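Q: What residues go here?
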């Protein structure tokens, strides 16, 4: 296991474990108000301090990890589930009307910044985690469709694909039996990258009030609540900020490590 993959897996596992533990235990009730203990600095009783309502920040970080990871994971699942079949279909029908429609649709989505599309969708259909998932997932679809199509196009000219066509296999069967396994490593790496971008997008939507709604904690919402109190309680902004940074860093390192491990050209270069 290379260094990037190891460090990325460790960082990601810490926050994933915190999210899983939050289902059964948190140090304090994340929604419980304790005004008498508001804005306390990190201490033994509250390792990450308390916010302006006296809520324990560590508990909120743990539940916020659950929210961010769930939103990003489902959004990536939507992108993969719809984008990969579209990319395979476009590659199998290269140059046809189907290919043109799919690729021009991708171009249309890419013409708008992802966060703008997400804000538009959540503003129209209402704020909430479900709509945030849909908004982020929609942008992931053309990402996976374009990557899948690009990787699959070169494979359609390979000898083993020609042999499968001569054997009488249909294009859909060839796509899923022969093309998909050969582009899976690329999709896994891209999935980790989109996962990290999904966490950033969810934090951005929550920051402007369009993500998960109170009392459900969200790292972006915690940053928004802290922006007017940075001078008197900097830990309120630092803790969720570091959580976002370390999670995204871990996922990006893991993506780089997986790319190095799965790319045969890089394996040959190392040997």
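A:
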């Amino acid at each position: 296991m290379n260094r990037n993959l190891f460090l990325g897996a460790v960082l990601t596992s810490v926050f994933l474990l915190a999210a899983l533990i939050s289902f059964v235990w948190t140090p304090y009730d994340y929604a419980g108000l304790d005004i008498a203990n508001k804005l306390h600095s990190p201490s033994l009783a509250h390792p990450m301090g308390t916010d302006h309502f006296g809520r324990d920040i560590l508990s909120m970080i743990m539940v916020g990890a659950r929210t961010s990871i769930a939103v990003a994971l489902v959004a990536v699942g939507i992108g993969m589930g719809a984008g990969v079949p579209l990319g395979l279909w476009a590659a199998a029908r290269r140059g046809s009307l189907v290919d043109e429609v799919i690729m021009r649709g991708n171009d249309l989505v890419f013409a708008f910044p992802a966060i703008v599309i997400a804000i538009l969708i959540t503003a129209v259909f209402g704020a909430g985690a479900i709509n945030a998932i849909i908004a982020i997932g929609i942008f992931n679809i053309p990402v996976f469709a374009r990557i899948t199509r690009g990787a699959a196009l070169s494979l359609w000219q390979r000898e083993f694909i020609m042999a499968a066509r001569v054997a009488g296999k249909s294009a859909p069967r060839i796509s899923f039996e022969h093309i998909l396994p050969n582009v899976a490593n690329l999709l896994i790496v891209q999935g980790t990258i989109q996962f990290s971008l999904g966490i950033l997008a969810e934090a951005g939507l929550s920051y402007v009030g369009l993500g998960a709604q109170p009392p459900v904690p969200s790292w972006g919402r915690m940053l928004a609540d802290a922006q007017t109190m940075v001078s008197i309680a900097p830990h309120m902004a630092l803790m969720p900020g570091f959580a976002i940074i370390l999670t995204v860093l871990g996922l990006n390192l893991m993506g780089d490590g997986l790319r190095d491990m799965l790319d045969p050209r890089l394996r040959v270069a190392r040997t």
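A: Context that may help when evaluating the design: The chain has one domain: 3-22+48-270. DSSP finds ten helices and no strands in the chain.
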